[in-house]
Fold each of these.
Amino acid sequence: DWTPGNVIADQVAAIRAQVGDARVICGLSGGVDSSVAAALVQRAVGDQLTCVFVDHGLLRAGEAEQVERDFVAATGVKLVVRDEKQRFVGALAGHSDPETKRKIIGREFIRVFEDAARDVVDDAGAHGEEVRFLVQGTLYPDVVESGGGEGAANIKSHHNVGGLPDDLQFSLVEPLRTLFKDEVRAVGRELGVPEEIVARQPFPGPGLGIRIVGEVTAERLDTLRKADAIAREELTKAGLDDEIWQCPVVLLADVRSVGVQGDGRTYGHPIVLRPVSSEDAMTADWTRLPYDVLSVISTRITNEVSEVNRVVLDVTSKPPGTIEWE
Ligand code: XMP
């Protein structure tokens, strides 16, 4: 029988058997998957777990604060926050190929986890057990689309599956590997993960790094963060959060178009809105958002974000488009 309670019981037993007395770290993004994975591992091995929140500079506005406020408050989990903005933006410099960017981000995540693991061991002092396990909130669709499933093509290297370096020092603990998103949400609710986290829309691990088509720079990240915050604010205000699965906001950094503002010519970048409806992210349709909401978002973005002079709507289903542009 599939029930959240049974999944929890099975996974708690499996995690205990896999991990034993060792220390475990978990990359926590604040999203549904990593939060539920962390809560499961905490249920299984308690204090042996340390969560690591990596501020990689590819986050949306307000995300770091939200993790500390919602998740730690609810679970009391041990959390380490690492400011790694320079590292990620530096490593991404000069790269615009999507798979290359994904692999770089995956590799840098692991390096940060290795650094964090050393600090955890140092803090443990006398105990000094090695950190040998890394928890990841990998879901079934991530496995399939990274080419890990039966007969599946490698569509994208999800940072937590296909993008791992060959010399990985950790064994992976992936308690959600057989689950779909709605099942993860059910498990999370059963574990008492707060609704603000369980109900969150998906956000990819590589963050805004794969929502800038072209090279990732600090300035472009700022531009995209502003546009994304406006879109999210207006969608929430219009009461549409439950209706859409997610709405990636994408900056076409390699594209410019001519515009006019006031008396002057502009030559700015387009922002793409990609609202989608989906059951499990394996397939999706574009969401028919109300025109007045689209209009407000477009007007605000072009007025408030000076680098952007055009807003376009992506009306492609998945397939043939994927949800994210990279
Ligand atoms: P695509 O673009 O493949 O996205 O249609 C399907 C779902 O997965 C999310 N996504 C990711 N999630 N790490 C993640 O944790 C990743 O590397 C990644 N890439 C895409 C995407 O936001 C959508 O919900």
Amino acid sequence: TSYGFRTVDDGEKQTLVNDVFHKVAKRYDIMNDVMSGGLHRVWKDALVAKLNPPRRAGFRFLDVAGGTGDIAFRIVAASDNQAQGTVLDINGSMLGVGAERAVKKGYAGNLEFVEANAEELPFEDNSFDAYTIAFGIRNVPDIDKALREAYRVLRRGGRFLCLEFSEVEMPLLDRIYDAWSFNGIPAMGKAIAGDAEPYQYLVESIRKFPRQDDFAAMITRAGFSRVHYTNYTGGIAALHSGWKL
Ligand code: SAM
């Protein structure tokens, strides 16, 4: 993995990622709206619509790299407050913001917050009905390992859903997007959060992430069946889906 001019190993990469999210935790939600022009809300709603959680008690989901709770809150709401979820993140600052928001929304009884690494999930095999991860997997140093862990903790019949920035597959939009992400996003980061570097890192991590078909192949290699993906906004984001059958 290269970061700027240097090459960093997995441990160093994780440290850089952790620094970014410790710094931005309090401003993370507003930054998301600014950076994506509110689109992240549309994409997250699409993930939850695809999951379509049952409106009955007993559904258990794990939201990995769950940060400040956006995906988990949406799943709980879509289940008529029936679903039980675990929000897992490696970063205590992000989880802290999430736990506070959960109390405010009245979801404290539905959710638990666990500080751990996506590469080593502290759960038994076959524990969850669904595994979700949104804009998180590109930050994980060993993606294959995280996918194998996802497979392990899902029960048979369980579903894997991953939302991530992807390869823009629309001409023109790809150029606008490049201009925005290489110049606009770091500049906005500096203006709002006082620091451009973390955002430069994030933009770079998006560039390095495997494109749609390659990522689908990785999910299949981890053991999942019926793997497919849907592009949103011309491929700025893509939702990958798979089943543990
Ligand atoms: N899912 C949330 C959302 O969509 O708003 C948060 C996404 S945020 C861009 C990425 C999150 O991934 C951060 O909260 C970060 O701490 C977390 N993360 C990075 N590396 C991780 C790892 N190895 N294991 C678990 N979480 C990790």
